[in-house]
Every structure is written in structure tokens, then in C-alpha cells.
Amino acid sequence: EEEVQCGEKSGEALEALLSDLAKVSNSRERASRLFQWLIHPIPSMSFFGDTWEKKPVLIKRQNPDYYKGLFSTAEFDRILRQDDVQYGVNLDVTSYTNGKRDTHNPPGRALPFTVWEFYESGCSLRMLNPQAFSSTVWSVLSILQEQFGSMAGANVYLTPPGTQGFAPHYDDIEAFVVQLEGKKHWRVYNPRSEDEVLPVVSSPNFSQSEIGKPILEVVLEAGDLLYFPRGFIHQGDCLPDAHSLHITVSSYQRNSWGNLLAKVVPAALEMAMEEDVDFRRGLPVDYLTYMGVQNSDEEDPRRAQFLSRIEELMKKLSTFAPVDAAVDQKARDYLHDCLPPMLTAEERASSVQGAPSRWEDGEAVDVGVTIRGHTRVRLIRSGIARLCSDGEAVWLYYTADNSRVYHKEEPKSIEIKAEQTDGMEFLIHAYPKFVTVGSLPCESAEDKVSLAELLFEKGLIHTAEPLQRS
Amino acid sequence: EEEVQCGEKSGEALEALLSDLAKVSNSRERASRLFQWLIHPIPSMSFFGDTWEKKPVLIKRQNPDYYKGLFSTAEFDRILRQDDVQYGVNLDVTSYTNGKRDTHNPPGRALPFTVWEFYESGCSLRMLNPQAFSSTVWSVLSILQEQFGSMAGANVYLTPPGTQGFAPHYDDIEAFVVQLEGKKHWRVYNPRSEDEVLPVVSSPNFSQSEIGKPILEVVLEAGDLLYFPRGFIHQGDCLPDAHSLHITVSSYQRNSWGNLLAKVVPAALEMAMEEDVDFRRGLPVDYLTYMGVQNSDEEDPRRAQFLSRIEELMKKLSTFAPVDAAVDQKARDYLHDCLPPMLTAEERASSVQGAPSRWEDGEAVDVGVTIRGHTRVRLIRSGIARLCSDGEAVWLYYTADNSRVYHKEEPKSIEIKAEQTDGMEFLIHAYPKFVTVGSLPCESAEDKVSLAELLFEKGLIHTAEPLQRS
Amino acid sequence: EEEVQCGEKSGEALEALLSDLAKVSNSRERASRLFQWLIHPIPSMSFFGDTWEKKPVLIKRQNPDYYKGLFSTAEFDRILRQDDVQYGVNLDVTSYTNGKRDTHNPPGRALPFTVWEFYESGCSLRMLNPQAFSSTVWSVLSILQEQFGSMAGANVYLTPPGTQGFAPHYDDIEAFVVQLEGKKHWRVYNPRSEDEVLPVVSSPNFSQSEIGKPILEVVLEAGDLLYFPRGFIHQGDCLPDAHSLHITVSSYQRNSWGNLLAKVVPAALEMAMEEDVDFRRGLPVDYLTYMGVQNSDEEDPRRAQFLSRIEELMKKLSTFAPVDAAVDQKARDYLHDCLPPMLTAEERASSVQGAPSRWEDGEAVDVGVTIRGHTRVRLIRSGIARLCSDGEAVWLYYTADNSRVYHKEEPKSIEIKAEQTDGMEFLIHAYPKFVTVGSLPCESAEDKVSLAELLFEKGLIHTAEPLQRS
Amino acid sequence: EEEVQCGEKSGEALEALLSDLAKVSNSRERASRLFQWLIHPIPSMSFFGDTWEKKPVLIKRQNPDYYKGLFSTAEFDRILRQDDVQYGVNLDVTSYTNGKRDTHNPPGRALPFTVWEFYESGCSLRMLNPQAFSSTVWSVLSILQEQFGSMAGANVYLTPPGTQGFAPHYDDIEAFVVQLEGKKHWRVYNPRSEDEVLPVVSSPNFSQSEIGKPILEVVLEAGDLLYFPRGFIHQGDCLPDAHSLHITVSSYQRNSWGNLLAKVVPAALEMAMEEDVDFRRGLPVDYLTYMGVQNSDEEDPRRAQFLSRIEELMKKLSTFAPVDAAVDQKARDYLHDCLPPMLTAEERASSVQGAPSRWEDGEAVDVGVTIRGHTRVRLIRSGIARLCSDGEAVWLYYTADNSRVYHKEEPKSIEIKAEQTDGMEFLIHAYPKFVTVGSLPCESAEDKVSLAELLFEKGLIHTAEPLQRS
Fold first, then answer.
1. Are A286 and D256 a contacting pair at CB < 8 A?
2. Reduced to 3 states, what is the DSSP secondary structure of residue C178?
């Protein structure tokens, strides 16, 4: 656990940053700069080296406006008024009083009339997917996900003065607590045991007696950041004199080596059985007489032999591991989890979304914009799409048609024809450079153009210059 | 079939009308005035007496602006640009060329870039639920549904000059073709036989040789209306010199006496078996030897006796018909089909949606607006809610939380406690009058207020005057 | 309620009867004679006229051997030993002590070791489908079902001296209690109200205080019969000095006019909507404003008009009733419920089951028995099969492949080709007469023979004389 | 491939053997003697060492009666007559003519009349589960399964002279072709490639051109045995002068090391993630940019590092392998696959199935046989039951209530209470010795007796001496 004190006004404020980022051409760089800003002044490299997944860190900024524009209670109120926020789906009403944690969601839509009544009575409000309602949150998370290579999510918490909304607990994600308004008193505790370090699932609610002494106790003020890895127990409560609004940005849920191995290992076994007769040989005819729990205390030399054979085969298994194919399975899940990109004005203008085709004065005009051999194109974002093979065909999975609501859309993909696969791969690796359609390594000019047209129509590429009418 | 010629500028244009309607306090009157405007200058009473479900009628207005503001191709273009319109879900691309009807929907989102390319190549565009994208269409349909007592839907059709998008066919709904832009050549044909009069399901596509001669042939121009009942075959095509945009407003799908009987009859039989031992008596032990298709040509006096017994019981069945309960079943389906109301500024201001509770200057203000005994309230719309009994409890079904997308939300209802049922019924029948909460026929003052609070929070009632803070 | 006293040795004992019945050629006559024997000395006609579905009747025979051979505790013991009887599936262990009814089924197979232990401890044993284990019960029920035109079922009850196994209750079937061994004290009570006369479902267990005074109290001895209709409450207990074994033969479950109407009425409505435009006309546009439970107390002349329109249409409905088609639906259910026939030696010898084809001395012999034009055939039983149309094709439903376990097999049917339908119908109506294959009204000789071969292979017809080798 | 020539009358015939086996007390010894007899004169040990899963072997016995009594065409005919054999379920009718393989199953029951007609027309008959119809086959297979530790199955094949019923193919099981009647010409071929050695699934039908030259060609005569491992292609056809009847005994379907690993490996991963934080650590944030199929050709040092980390973790995985628990999962599947034991007269007499409790002279007699502390008991068969833990409770899985029809019954188990687990384990390991109930290591005498009673009632143990009445 570590504390960093910043001088006043150190670092760029969000609004300025976002406008700067729009000028950064490479989406990976954009992601890394946004993340760097989030944890400023800690350098990213040292953060990932020393802190990430290891220990909490606190950044005190003395700059209440640092995160300004990301989210506010005023926007919360506006969303309640304008959008269809549903209790229990998008908003939770909670309380933690005298050691008792309660949820108070009524059915139906959450309108300001009832929401603010709950707040006034001392309940905390948790908005579950602010990215669906706030463009800024959407924009920030959709950029950050490219930094993490794992879905970035967020919850917003609004807590009345002098109250606490949640019991102490730990989560299954890396958490960045961004204080937006007011202040909050936080206590962070070590994982209780080795088994709860970087845990796979979140904890239940703990009582105060189960969690020991905090390793970090602090009052977070607007502009401050508190990071802690999954497994670190935490609780926050409001001081009597101020409400608190914070947003917790999260990532790395089910994104461990073990989660990848769960894809690798069954595939490895399947391949081993196909390719290596040792895996297909019959078990000893008498193995049931000395193996199994009922025989586990028996002294039988055949047991050792059997166990050593299993060990030998399991070790051999690693030689069959189709790691890249398993990574692709994981990547497909990730692309499905992703937020769609929020395009900048420039990106929009040079992509299908900004194509000039329109209805004007009783007719369709500027129709049929043409992609030609000399048109220069590239992926609209580095992480927008990924080429995966299922053994028979090659598919391009992409995030462009995802919804801002998690998994509301099915995973999206298009089949890439054999004669266009190399072209597609070339385009992916060319990023962030623009390349001419004519330079795509497809045999025929027609294949080059039709691939580019397909990708353009799906919103996966944009052009270096505005497109011409045909 | 009938044709009505209007003088130029006869009737109020839509925009003015809608602003007038907002001042009409009674939603049923609002509905009837909007419908009257739609079919102006035919009086509603004579329309429902002579035309509805009987024959087509054509109204030529000489006023291209009559329906202006309802929908336009410019709005179509805006929707494609701003909303998530999906091919096959919200938009169909069709053609009818040389007697062949085709659909050309690609997968994915319909952006202007591809949509206008289809249009330029001669395809028709059908937008399937414009009410989800256009507030005006939503407003108009949500008012009209109260006139019909049956869901009002709409499709928009945009057709390039010199083309036809659909084969001749008939539908299963009453259709009001509202010409918005350009012009279209229409032909309407009689139902082909008695069996196809007011049909239960739509027809397949017909060939030109199957449909006989048109009984009505006309060029519809902006501002004109063409109505025809379900079962009347129709086809429309564009003249070479003009595109066409029309919206077809529809209603009365599965809303016949037979559709109601499908709810009445099984309930009647269930009741008859409970209450009348004649329905519980055993069949004759030998009935299988003389009844059934294999015996239908037999001359057996027992057959006549058996058939007459069946007839007698079926006639008796009508004495058990729980008609009101069956109507409630149908009403529940209707309330689920309904669009939610689109509130006027005044309605909003006096209902939960416009309640002053809000976040301001770091705190929740104007929270806890109070409904008291002297507060005057009424349903926000006549058709917003309906009291139904399922035999055990009493439920209030309502439309306020429906989605603009058909059946996207489950049917919504709240249980009304026994001690509040009379109060609820009183409130329903009081409409359009405002009544004081204190006048509700509930025993305790608490029951009166808690009923009114519940209805207010759900957005089902509004108040005569703005609410005060508590 | 009625009591009939028989002289000793009146009526034929079962064994003799069954051997006589095997000589009766017409299965319908067989059924009626077996039923006559069951209720001897009451004439069938007067039974069905005065007693059936009306009141209990008791027959005291003074002849303990009258039903001998139908079932015995010795056979019960043999079945436990030889067959796979499962607790809870085929056998229930019950008790009724101090007003409390309990079931004691352990999981798994019911072997004599545990079954007799339960019996000794005072539990009653109910065997649920003795027809699956006892050929005689199977034979008797499969004949009786043809008399009832409705499935005939049975349970066997063995009760230790001085105990009662079941609480007072009524059933949903006509019950014939056949006392086989020992004696039992029975009390029968009137239905408690008009609503419980010929009830649709069985009652829960009653307490003694709920059922009033018995209308019949008697000690049933071996050879006696007690009949009571569904709805009559009953209870039986053993005297201290004797155990009791009885079998209850049941029929007419869900076989009322109402059960048939449940098939007729929806089909009638469907037909009415197709054929009569009155059923397809729209409901009044304002009907929801005066109909429905919330308006049921309103004085509105439109209500009376609406109700009278419904009544009119419901009465008209009877003119569309496709009664024969509905009877066929019911007949199909019945054929699925039926036991398969238990063939007599003669039936077996002249049907596919007794065909001489066999393996002998290393080769298949007497293969290819031929049906020719002069072969005389008929259905093997009147009720073995039934011709039903589903509107498109004609199907022959049949019971021959049913299982002795209720609904273990799917309903069985074969499609009858258009050119063989008349032949099939002719064959059905010819029963009990044998007819030559050549006389079947099919156009070609080939169709006649192929129909006969198909029916012969399925075991649905038998021949007048043994078949010859081809 | 190997051929063994036996002198005439070498080895004991089946009937004598089975009667001898009934005297063998230890079921494992019974199994090994029966298997030894099957492959006589090859010693079991050398068979499993040199031949099993390695190569075909042929045993020519010069003794047509060696397998007599196992099955015959006469029994086939009897089964068709007496049992409910269904085409497509229990019997397949096949042909292989001019390189074309056909199946001719009609729907419905297979009666001799139609079956022998198919046979006469040159079709082969395959009975799919003779163990359900033949007690001898049941008995033999239920003993052999204990030898294999894997389900033993069988099919019977009857082929007319001069015909072939099946195309060349290989199976996924070890096959013992036992010639019962007549003779058959067999050709056996090597697996076509390393990948088809000991294959996981059966092959499709091959054409003659795909399979190369036979490594074994022979005419099998009654009494002969042909064994070949899975993967060896084979075809058999009848000589013009003789029909053929053989039974193929099979085992070791899905019983390989790989099949066990499919249970071990996911469990190992689950355990590793619980116990070792290395498996829970996050993946590198940038891994998607260099791993996956689209990056598989990239030269990036991070790839090697990533792959080596995966390899390291996979190797470490073997240290977490819960092998005994996985074997128990496999054992549970095996116990579910097993045939129930077919008891000998002695086994029956000393078990629940032969308990003297019965109905005699109007009452239950010899009820309540008592198990006491000095009663000597043991498992009725070594393989009848197995103790498995699911982590929370301990369950005894058993085969006694399985059906002779594969998987017709659900897996059967009973929970063993904590205080009886040691007793249960003691009893399992004591086999084949009888032990007194009093010697079971349970704390209370009551626990000992209640455990023994439970096992006795389920048919899992028998007693050394006949039981006494209580």
C-alpha cells in the first residue's frame, strides 16, 4: 500500500485530455495515454510492475477538478429524468446500518421523485452501467478496454452524508475508485489468507469482526484515486458533512492464466487423443480394484505406477496445447464483452457512419461513394476486429455493432473468404498505418476492393481522405 | 368504394392539430378528434357506420401539407443516421420486378451509405416501427389506439420513381394509407370470395392473374388518404416522375368477435362442467360404435340423438359464458400491445415525470412532494390502466411502462389490495373528472393516500394543481 | 343404493367363463357377456338404465369362488418374487391410523422380504397396475374396455386384519369393488353436494366429520361385488379376524359430454371463423369502455346488446360443430389408453403371431405365407383399430402394439392410402363377418392384397382358415 | 496376427463351465476363469501381455460344441415369438450387395413372420442386445464385465448362405467374434494409419479399394474364436453352402487413459485455481496483441515467453490432479453401464431375493428375518457396489438395480452415513471373506446392524448361512 501526493493542478483535466486524445491517431496509444492520465503521476510501467494485482495505491491530487466531466450527480439526475432507468437493472438502492446490509429496490422505473426520496432517507444509490447513459463514461471505458485487453466496466456510487451503503467485502476485479464529488472515508484490508489473494469470485458481505485491521485508512476527496487489486477487502462511508459521488472503473474479471488454461487444456486433450496413441490406449483392466477413493489408503505398488503414468501423460499434454487457438476463443469472448467504439468527429467523417449519402430535396444524393485501388484505408481502431479460425473457415470478429448494454447483442462476425484472408491479415498488422486498397495481398483487384467495401460498410475501416462519389 | 374530394386547405394541418389536442383534457375526446382529422371530411359516425370493415374509401385533399410533420424522408434519413436501425428488424429492402417479389436485407445496421444505395438501385424501403424512432408517429398512434380499443401500428414505405416494391396481396388489418410525399398509383380489388372477406390472416403474394379487375384505381398525392378493410387486395407503384413516401396506419388485427369467443368459450365450458351435472355425465357406452368419421355415413338413429344432445349442450353453454372476465383477458392483451402514452408538457408537469425532486447544488431538493386528502387527482389517460380480477386477487394492468418497441416489456400490473379496490374503481369511472384523494371510497385515510401515492409513483395519475413539497 | 342377494352357486365361475368366452367369435359380444357376468344377476340393460352413474349397488353372492382365478394374494407374492415391482410405481404401502393417512414407500424394488414386513406391521398394500403382471387381469380388462368404450383400469388392495389403509374419499371413476379373499367392512356416503355429483377430479382425504352418515354399510365377502359411481364417498376397513384382498375395476375417467365438448368447441369456433364472416367481424370500437369486470355493475344498454350478440354467436356455434372429427380425437386418446388384446389360442393361430414361419434344423421354414384374393379375413377384434382423418391423410389408429403399462408406447397408427380407404372402411364395418380379400372395394387386386398383407403383418386382422405357404 | 490350433475337445464346454463357476465363491475369480475359457488355450496373462489392443488372434478349436448353449438361432426364433423385439431398436435387417450397404427395418414389432421373410430374401439379422432376452448371454456378460472393469456388450449376427450383411469397417471396441453355428469367411486388415490405431470412434463404411490387403483371412467354424482390437478393419461373408450365427462380445469403449484424463484434467485445473495463486494471476495486459492465430507467424520474443509460461503451468497442473476422485467419476459411469448380476441359486438363497418371507395359507409367513451381530455377511459380488465421495457426502453406487437394457434405469446410489462409512469400507475390502456384522468398525451395535440391514434389503450383501426368522 502506497500513497502518492500530487502538487495542485498537476496533470491535465479530463475535458482537455479527451480533446487531445481525439488527435492521437493510434488507438493503442490513445488507450495508454488515457490510462496514464488516470493513474498520473505514477508511470504506467512502474504501476504495472509494482502495484497492479499486488497492492493498493492512493493518489491524493489536491485538484478537485481532475476528473471533472467524467460524471456528476447532476448528470445522474438528468439520466433519471431522460432515460429509462429501472430499479434492480440499472440502479440499486442500498443501505448498511448497524451491521446490516439491505437492498430497497421497488419494481419499475426509477424516476427522480422516488430516487431522491430514497436518498434523503439515507440510502445509497448505485448506478450499474453508467456507460449506457453517459457518453463520456462510454468513451473513457471503450478506450481503456484496449489498454487492459479485458472488458472495462464501471459503477457509480452516490452516498448521503453520514451513511454507508455497503458492507465490507472484496471483489473479483481490479478496482480504480475515482472520487468525483464530496468525500468518502475508506478503509482497505489485506486478503485474509493466501487462498483469497487474487480470488476468482467476489466475497459475501463480511462482519467487522472478520476482517482484521485496515492497512490503509483515508478520506478520498474529489480528484483523488484509490486503486486496489481483487481480494483486498474494502469499505467506504460518508462523513457527516458531505455526500460522496465516485465511479469505480473495473477490469480483469476472469482474465487469469487459469481462465485461459480452461480453454487450452480441453483442446490439448482432444488434440492429444487424435495425435498420440498413448492417450488412446486402454486403462489397465484391473485399475478399478486399486484406484479410487475407497482404495486411496491401500498400499499397492500399482497405485504409484498408475499415478506416475497419469503425471507423465499430463506433462506430455502441454506439447499438444493449441495456445493460439485458445487465445482466439478468449479473444472472441473479450470482443463480445467490449463496448463499441465511440467515434471521434474525424473518425466518423472518414467512415461509413459519416459517408455523405443522404436524402436531400426529394432525392438520395451522394450515393455510391467509391473505394478504389488507390484509396488509403486502415482499421478504425486497433481493437475493433480480430481474425479467428474455427478450423474450417476464417471469421472476423468485431466490436463495432456491440451495444453499450453488456451482451445485449450476440457476438458479431463475418466470414472472410479464403482469397481475402491474407489481405485481412495484412490490414490488421498494418495498423496504425494507412495502406492503399491496391496493396492488399489478394490475387484479384476485385477481391481487394470487395474486401475493403465489406469492411467499410461494417464500419471496421476508415479512409485517409474523404471518399469521392462514384 | 367511394371517393371524397376536398376543397383546398380544408381541415387543420397536423402541427396545429397536435397543439390543439394538447389542450383537450379528455384523452378519449382527444382520440376521437385525431381520428376525425385523419378521415376528414368524412364524419366519424358515418365512417364507422358505412365504410369501416365494409369498403375502401379515397379522400383527395388538394392539400399536400395536410399530413405534414407526421413523417418525412428527411426524418427517415435522420433516423438512419442517429438510431440503431437494423436490416430485417426495423427496415426491409424489397423489390417487385417482372412479377417477382424479393427481399434484399443484408445483416447488420442500416446506415445511409448502404440504404440509399439500395434505393438508387430501385429498391423500396419499408420501415417497420417508425413509432420507435419518430415522436410524432408515436404520439399519433398512442392517441389513436384509444379510439380503436385495439393496437394501432404503422409502417412507412419509401419507393423510388418508376418502381413497385410489393406484390398484390391483402392484409389482416384495417389500413389507412396516408400519402406523405410524392405520389403513388394504387389499385384496390375486392376480396376474391366470401371466405376472404375480413380474413383472419394475411394472404400470400398474388400473381396479377389471380386478382381480377381493380374496383378502385387512383394516383394518391401528398395529403390524400386511402382506406381499405382487411381482405381487400391492393398494390401500389410509383410513376416514373416521382418517388413516393406513405405511412400506413393499421389496427384491428385479431380483434373480432371470434377472437373474443376464443377466450369466452373455453371459460364457459369450464364453468359449465363445474356448475351443471349435465356436462359431467358420461357419454353413452356405445357411442364410439356409431359416431366418428368412419361411421359418418351410417344410418343410425342414435347418431341424430347424439348430435342433438351435443347441440343442446352447446346452446346451454352460452348461459355460462363469463363474458366480462373474457373481455378482461382480451383487455390485458390489448394493454400489453399498447404504446405507452406520450405525455404533453402539462401532463408531464402534473405527474411523477415532472415532479420537482432533483439534484441541485450538491443536494437533493424538493424531495417528498406530498399527496394529501385534498389533492385532486385523476387517471393521466382514460386508457392508461384497467382493473382485472383473476378470481383470487385484483390487478391493475397499465400501459405506462410499455416500450415503444412492440412487446419489448412484459405485461405490467400491480396488485390492488381488497380495501383499495373500490377506490380504484371509483377513480377509473370518475375520469375525466379530477376527484380529491379524500373522496376515494376507501375506509381509512391512510388507504386513500397510499393508493394515490402508488398510482402517482407509477405515473398512472396526475394532479389538478402542481404538487407542494411536504 | 340397492342390495341384491344371490342364491349359492348362481352364475358361472370365472375360469369356466373365460374358456367359454374364447369360443365367442364377436369381441363386442364377448365384452358384453363378461360385463354381464361381472354384475350378475343384475341384467346389463337395467344396470345401465337404473344404476350406472346414479347410485351404489351391492351384490351378495354366497359364493366365495365366483371371482376365483382373477387374482389372489398367492399371485401377489409370486409377482413380487418374479417381476420388477417398484415401490411408488407399482406398489404403494399405506396406513390410516387415528384419522391420519400415511404412505410408507421406500425407494427401489419391492421384494417379499420388505413387503411382508410392512404388511405384518399393519400396512395396506396397493398394487397399481396388476394387468401388467397378471395375464388374467389383463385379459379381463382388455375385454371390458370394449364394453365401456373407455379405458378399464384396476388396482388391487391387500389389507391386514383390523386395519384400514385409506381415508374416506371419492374418486373420479366408476368403481366395481370385487372382493377376492377374506372380508372387508365398507361404508358408502352420498356426494356432499350437487357440485360433487359425478365430479371431474377425485377428492382429497376427508375427515370423518366431513362426510355425514353412510347410505350403505356392509361387510363384503369373497365373491361379492360393490359398485358405486364417481363422487360417492367410501371407506373400507378390515375386521379383526380376517385380512381382505379386493380388486377395484374402474372406468369412465374423463369420459363425459363435457370432455367431448372440450374437443368439439374449439374446432367449432375455428370452423365458424373460416366459414362465417359474422365471427370475423370486428368488435365494437368502444367495447372496452363498457364491458369487462370493472364495468360489470354499469347500467349501459350497450352491455345487454353486447351480451346478446355473444349469446347469439355461441348458439350459432353449434351449427359448425365437427362432432365426428371431435369424436375421432377422443377415440384416438381412447385407443392410446387401451390395453393391447390378449389373444386366444385360436386368434393367435390364425394371425401373424401364430404364423408358422420359424427356424428349424438350420434353416427358416414355412416362410412367405400368402394372402390371396380368396383368403377370408376380418379384424381380429372389433375395437382393435379405427379409421381417422386429420383433414389431409387417413390414418388407422390401433391398439395391437400398446403396452400393458399405461402409455408406455406412443400412439400407434399407419397411413392408409387413398385407394385403400374404402377397402379399410368396408373391412371395419364387415366385422364380425369374415370377407374375402378379393371383395374389398379397392380398384386393383394388388391394392386389396397389399392392404390385407399390411394389416396382417401388424396383427390387426386374422384369417378364417390357417394360412398356406406360398 | 496369430493363429492357434486346438486339439479336438480341448477345454470345457459352456454348460459344464457355468455350473462349475456357480461354485466359485469369489466373483473376480469367476470372471477371470470365464474369460480364460473364452480365449482358451491362450493363457490370460499372455493374451493381455501380447495380444490385447495389439493384434488379431484366431483360435481354431475343431470343437463345434465349445460355445454351445451361449446362443442359437432356435433361441433367436423363440425370442422373436415370445418377446417384444422391435425393428430398429432390438433388431436390424441389413444387406451389403454389390458394394452397397442397406438397412431394411420397417417400423414396429419384429415377428417371425416378417423376420424370416427378410432372411429368406438374403438379408442379415443383427440382434442388438441379446443379453436382455437370453439369460445365458446376460450371465456371461455380467461375469465378464468384472474381468474387464468396463462394460461388456454383445450383438448377435445371423447371415444367410452366400451373402454379406455389412461393409468393411472398424469399431471403437475390442471385439471377440464367437462362432456359434455354421461358418463364415472373415478378412481382417491393419489400421490404415497411426491415427486409426486404437481409434476413439468407429469408422464409416469403407469401399474395398480403401482398405488394402487383409492380414488375416480365414473361415470361422462353430467353436472358433476371432479377436481383434479396435481400429482393425474387418468384413465377414457367408459361403454358399452354410448360414452363419455368431455373437460378438465387446468391451473397452471409451475406456482409455485419455477418457480418464478428461475427468482428471478439469478437476485438476479447478483445484489449481483454488490452491495456487499462480493460476489466478492476470494474463499480461497486452497478450492479445501478440498471441492468437492472427499473430502466430509473428516473431515476437513475448510469444516464446507466453508459451513457456503456459507449458510451465500445464506441467504444474499434474501436481493437483485428484486422480482417485476422477477414477470414482469414471467408476460411477461404469457402474451405471453394468448389467445387474444374474444370481446363482446359492447366492439367491442367501440374499434378500431368496428370503423366505412369503404369503401362505392366508397369511404372511417367515416375515422379519433377523440380521444380528453374529450374522456373517459379505458383498454378493465384488463389483456390485463402490464407495464414492462427492466432497460433501459419501455415496454407495451399485449395479443391483440396473436393467438388462442399457441405461434404462438411472444410476442408483444410497447415501452412507458418516458413522457407517468405515464399516462400509471394511466390508468392501473384506471381500471375498465373510465377516460378522459385529466386526464392522462402526461405533454402535445399532449402526452395524442397520448398515447390514440396509445392504441386505438392497440385495448388495448375502449371508454365509440361511437367515433365521426373528
1. no
2. strand
Smallest CA–CA distance, residue C95 to chain D, in Å, is 17
The kind and range of the H/E element at B218 are strand B216-221
Contact C268 B314 (CB under 8 A): yes
Mutation for A interface: D251, D289, D310, D319, most A CBs within 10 A: D310
Q: Which of C72, C86, C93, C116 to mutate to test the interface with D (most CBs of D within 10 A)?
A: C116
Joined grid coordinates for residue B440: 376515494
Residue B174 Cα, gap to closest chain C Cα (Å): 10
Give the pLDDT means over successive 10-residue stretches in chain B (470 positions).
76 86 94 96 96 97 94 97 96 97 96 96 97 97 97 98 98 98 98 97 97 97 97 97 97 98 97 97 97 93 97 96 95 97 92 92 87 95 93 93 95 95 96 97 95 96 80
Amino acid at B414: I
Confidence of residue D318 (pLDDT cuts 50, 70, 90): very high
- Of C168, C209, C197, C171, which is closest to residue C185 (Cα–Cα)? C168
Residue B42 CB: number of other CB atoms within 10 A? 19
What does pTM read for this prediction? 0.91
Question: CB within 8 A of B319, min separation 6: which ones?
Answer: none
Residue D408, number of CB atoms within 10 A of its CB: 9
CB contact under 8 A, A358 and B77: yes
Cβ-Cβ pairs closer than 8 A, C with D, add up to: 92
D122: left (phi over 0), alpha (psi -120 to 50) or beta: left
DSSP state of D103: E
From D174, D188, D137, D158, select the one nearest D18 (Cα to Cα).
Answer: D137
**What pLDDT shows up at residue B465?**
87
Task: Report C:229-288 residues touching D (Cβ under 8 A).
Answer: 243
> Cα-atom radius of gyration of chain C, to the nearest Å?
27
Burial of D426 (0-12, 13-18, 19+ CB in 10 A): middle
Q: How far is B244 from chain C (nearest CA, A)?
A: 31
Do residues D421 and D411 lie in contact, with contact meaning Cβ atoms separated by under 8 Å?
no
Judged by CB atoms within 8 Å, which residues 303-342 of D form the interface with C?
none
Helices (H) and strands (E) counted in chain B, each on its own, are: 13, 19
Q: Does A393 touch chain D (CB under 8 A)?
A: no
Q: What is the pLDDT of residues C415-432, one digit of tens each?
A: 999 999 999 999 999 999
Bond before D106 cis per omega within 30 degrees: no
Interface TM-score (ipTM) > 0.85: yes
| C161–chain D Cβ distance below 8 A for any pair | no
Residue D48 has φ and ψ, to the nearest 5°, of -70, -25
- D462 φ/ψ sector (left φ>0, alpha ψ -120 to 50, else beta): beta
**Region label for A257, one of left (φ > 0), alpha (ψ between -120 and 50) or beta (otherwise):** alpha
**Residue of B440, B442, B455 lying closest to B396 (CA atoms):** B455
Residue with cell 470482443: A335
Contacts of B163 (CB under 8 A, 6+ apart): B95, B96, B97, B122, B123, B124, B237, B238
* pLDDT tens per residue across span A383-419: 999 999 887 899 999 999 999 999 999 999 999 999 9
Residue type, C232: F
Nearest to B270 by CA among C193, C297, C266: C266
The CA radius of gyration of chain A, in Å to the nearest whole number, is 27
Q: Are strands D244-251 and D153-159 parallel, antiparallel or unpaired?
A: antiparallel
Q: In chain A, which residue's Cα lies nearest the Cα of B74?
A: A359
Q: Say how many CB pairs under 8 Å bridge B and C.
A: 232
Cell 379397392 belongs to: C442
State the pairing for strand pair C385-389/C394-398. Answer: antiparallel
Judge: D368–C120 Cβ closer than 8 Å, yes or no. Answer: yes
Q: How many residues does chain D have?
A: 470
Distance of alpha carbon D456 from alpha carbon D33, whole angstroms: 27
